[in-house]
Amino acid sequence: MKVVSPRTVEDALAALASASPNTRILAGGTDLVVEMESGRTRPDLVVDVGRTAGLRWIRATEHGLEMGAGTTCTDLLRSDSAARHADLLVEAAREVGAVQIQNRATIGGNLGTASPAADLTPVLFALAARVRLRSLAGTRELAVEDFVTGYRTTARRPDELIESVSLPLRRDGERRAFRKVGTRRAQSISKVVVALAIGPKHVDARIAAGSVAECTVRLRTVENLVVRGTVRGDRARAHHDLYRGVDAALRIDIRPRDDVRSTADYRHAVLTRMLVRILGELPPT
Amino acid sequence: MRSIFEDADAIELRVRVNGTPHVLRVPPLRRLLDVLREDLGLAGSKEGCGEGECGACTVLVEGEAVLSCLMPACQVADAEVVTIEGPGFERVRAAFLAHGGAQCGICTPGMIVMTRAWIDACTRDGVEPTEDGARTALAGNLCRCTGYGAITAAAVDAAGGASSGVSS
Amino acid sequence: MQGFIGRDIARPDGPAKVGGTAVYVADLVVPDAWIGGTVRSDVARGILRGFDRDPAFDWTRVAFVTAADIPGENVQALIVDDQPVLASANVEHWGEPLALIAAPDHATLEAALAAVKPRIDARTANFDPERSTQVFKAIDIVKGDVDEVLRALPDGARVFEGTYRTDSQEQLYVEPQGCIAWPPDAAGAITVKGSLQCPHYVRKALVRCFGVAPELARVVQMETGGGFGGKEEYPSVVACHAALLARAARRPVKLIYDRHEDLAVTPKRHPGRVTIRAAFAADGTALALDVDVLMDGGAYTTLSPVVLSRGTLHASGPYRWPAARIHGRVVATNHVPYGAFRGFGAPQTCFAVERIFDRAARELDIHPFALRRQNALVPGDTTVTGQVLEHSVGSLQVLEEIARSSAFDRHDWGAARGEIGAKRRGLGLSFFFHGAGFTGSGEDMLKGRVRVDLLPDGRAEVLAGSTEIGQGTNALFTAIASEALGVDPADIVLATPDTARVPDSGPTVASRTCMVVGSVLADACRTLRARVGDAQQPWRERARQFLASGGEGSVTVVYASPVGVRWDEANYRGEAYPVFGWAADVAEVEVDVDTCEVDVLRFWTAVDVGRALQPRLVAGQIEGGSLQAIGWAHREVVTTREGRFEQDRLATCIVPTTLDAPRFHVTLVEIPYPHGPFGAKGVGELPMDGGAPAVLSAIEDALGVHAAHVPATPERLLHLLEPSSPSVHA
């Protein structure tokens, strides 16, 4: 095994340019070191970007909020810009591990690992984040849901580095929510995590969930329910219709599994119930 | 699978630990925990899990609390590391003794280091140290002996805050 | 009185612990020591045919040990000799140790472990205790004629039935198991140091495994990072393995489990199934109790018979039953052996009887507090074994105190509540007792002993086999000795538990260290004090004069039952325990009705400890034990698949964090026990018994569902709310 600790992004890209597919990028180490310890990963090359200059910054721009890939959860918690533009992301960052993990875990790492249980990624889905990838060949930008491609897989090529993540400006009247159901109140991997952003008058809806499929997923059928806004009638009836609608939509949108943390049934039922409560409390269109 | 962290060719590591500069030759991914315990003989940081879940190996790197079992040596190059053996813990230690915050003692070094990081953060950010604040700050440090009440009371006491306390 | 009783003294072990200088076994630097590892079974049952060892690996670089290399008996000595140190033919559980390897470093050890494959012919395994054909132990307790009472119930009487299940639980001491062993010296003597509760248990195991005299096996306790029962019997396994490796490698060997291995193979709490039938008169008077207890013992006997014993003896709860029949059995399966964990069988049965009391209260429309108080055992009452309660019976006092602190007696428990938002709160009560010390004649057979020696400088050295595992033995013994000798704590020295030096005080288990060993210690100190005399000079001066004048400065006292043995082991009649601790808990929960997540917000507990010798230590025991109980109640999941624990990482083995812990409100009740030191009795295990029923009672109050399975996970609660949906956990 070889380990390099580039001090600049250019050096990191140079190291990645000739890297084998069995290369891992080390940022905060909160996933990779655990994977290596458990024997699940044995990379040939580790590119340590933990102290690479130019990856750890948060910037508010006229287009929204941009964050270097090396931004930690703690950086988000301490950032006024993040609090203003990305309250949901801050909320999610607070739910990652506990303080020691938050001090090390990065937004790039959370995305790049592409764990189905990632806490930040559903928020990035809901907030329509874009991911900037850079290689010696140049840079490209992807919508976050195009970046995450499957169980612990992404669209990142071996020669690329996640350089930054950007979020569009928050719209007036946009409703946002984040809920994590874990095994306990802290230091917990999610059983279900859900994030949503619903545009004013429900013109659009972005709802994403984690730990209910092989990777973070958009709940597009549920989104359609919201955008169509067809739920009518008296309150109890409306609630019942909404429940049935969300329940049916989730049968299309998610593929939960039984695992050591929870059950498929629980994940489906609880995601339904949380969505019904959140959507049921939306102001009428 | 400890050996995986010893696999790559050694690098020269310059690091300050508790104020003392060291130059070591270590594999780059050698866990900071092993550097401290085995190379520097600082056994106060404990290994409770080796996977970042228990907090017993908590140390300060550049003033931030981190888990030394997840921290490769290459990431502390030229950094300042503070362990339980370092200076500046007197008040927190005294509070833990006074409140019965240490029972079996295995989580105690990590708890005390984390408590200090929390107090430092409260001071830096001008936040009042409360029991709720202590509970949030110490949520990554598992203790199986105390039920935590004595620990959070000790933390608040050490921070100079008013503890709602444990009514015993 | 000196004033060290009832007043907190400094923990002797405190400064080193907060300074990070306390030495645990992993911290011990031993030059030239190798590290050990274990080759384990990857099937739950089979016949071991041998080992395939990769010839490409240079086996001269390591020490390799199999059953054939055991110099003594291949027996893990405990209660029954059914568990081998290393399997030689029959394999009975996943992870069973088959061979051992020692190597100079991790890389070599990992390579060697990867280069050996056991050849096992797999056999069908049984994981269902209901279908087990091997009973480790069966117990029957009979009081009166239950059938007769049930046949002739008075008008309005009701019979309530239920089956209550409790899953296993991991101790999760934060320091994993570990020992370091030195090879036999020229005289054949072996030394083991480790993380352990019971040095003399470990010595007994080494004696059998090595076929040596007790003097040739020395066991030293290192600072121990938590036990909770988990380091009662299992360190004997680690110690024998380390010592075998040291013998083969001819050098010291450190055998320290990493967390994965510790979670995967060490014993946990026995899973239980308790079927209970209880008859009450219309006015709430308890009439008859019929209980059937089944526990899964796992693959070997280990401590299962005594766990079952304590379980059945607590199945009545702290209640007056005119007639009772308790049948219990613990059986073999191909699970990893279950073992000691704080509470030791009692939490499983206390849970069932407390749940039945809640059910009866609801059905009879009697307040759950009133129903419990009405039927509480009081002085002069007779337990199900026929024991007449005489001393230190704080039952009504703890109920009064819990009512005063929590106001539960005025809470409208179980009242139907409409949906108000996404969260609902509830309160729940439990009432329980726990026998202190060994069961029945255990203490008389054990004859625990303590020695106190005057040192040349006049200080008194306490030599006991009892261990400090966090609970505060060192401070407790210092306080008892100071008080009994009439000296300052600085005049007391505590000997390290080292079998070469300290007498066998009995194991550090069963809530007996304070009450039993503490009383022996107090006696020894009083004897010594009487010898030295109560002159005016300072103690050390007097002690030195006493020694100079040829006085005998060493006192050994052996425990003898203060009242004689009144226990019939064959029929389970008589005095099951010297005395009981009594307690009541009230839990306040908040339940998210969407997710069924439960938070325990506040937790009141009132506990009769006889006398709180060191109040801070007592509170620490109560709060820590209560949180373990709360964790078990709703969060701590242990499941198996094909005999393998699924929670084999700390990321999946969930215990409470600071944010999961309630605010505790502890009330100590002191009804002195005349035969305990300064009135004290046991407290260590007691708080483990009440948490689960209190939390599930509070969940019932909040959600209106009667959960009957611990832990009451969100998955299980959701299933109770939505019975139509299938539940995998159920």
Topology:
The complex is a heterotrimer of chains A (285), B (168) and C (730).
Chain A: E1 2-4, H1 9-17, E2 23-26, H2 32-37, E3 45-48, E4 58-60, E5 64-68, H3 73-78, H4 80-85, H5 87-94, H6 99-104, H7 107-113, H8 121-126, E6 130-135, E7 138-143, H9 144-147, E8 148-150, E9 153-154, E10 161-168, E11 175-182, E12 190-198, E13 205-210, E14 217-218, H10 220-228, H11 235-253, H12 264-280
Parallel strand pairs in A: 1-3, 2-3
Antiparallel strand pairs in A: 4-5, 5-10, 6-7, 6-10, 8-9, 11-12, 12-13, 13-14
Chain B: E1 11-17, E2 20-26, H1 32-39, E3 58-61, E4 64-67, E5 80-82, H2 90-99, H3 108-125, H4 131-137, H5 149-158
Parallel strand pairs in B: 1-5
Antiparallel strand pairs in B: 1-2, 3-4, 3-5
Chain C: H1 14-19, E1 34-40, E2 46-53, E3 63-65, E4 90-91, E5 97-103, H2 106-114, E6 116-122, E7 135-143, H3 146-151, E8 158-166, E9 178-182, E10 190-194, H4 199-210, E11 217-221, H5 234-249, E12 253-256, H6 259-265, E13 272-280, E14 286-298, H7 304-313, E15 323-332, H8 346-364, H9 368-375, H10 395-406, E16 423-436, H11 442-446, E17 449-454, E18 460-463, H12 473-485, E19 492-494, H13 513-532, H14 539-548, E20 554-558, E21 567-568, E22 573-574, E23 579-592, E24 598-608, H15 615-634, E25 640-641, E26 644-645, E27 663-669, H16 687-703, E28 709-710, H17 714-721
Parallel strand pairs in C: 1-12, 8-28, 10-11, 14-15, 18-19, 24-27
Antiparallel strand pairs in C: 1-5, 2-4, 2-6, 3-5, 7-15, 8-13, 9-10, 9-12, 13-14, 16-23, 17-18, 17-20, 21-22, 23-24, 25-26
Helix pairs in contact in C: 4-5, 7-8, 8-16, 12-13, 15-16
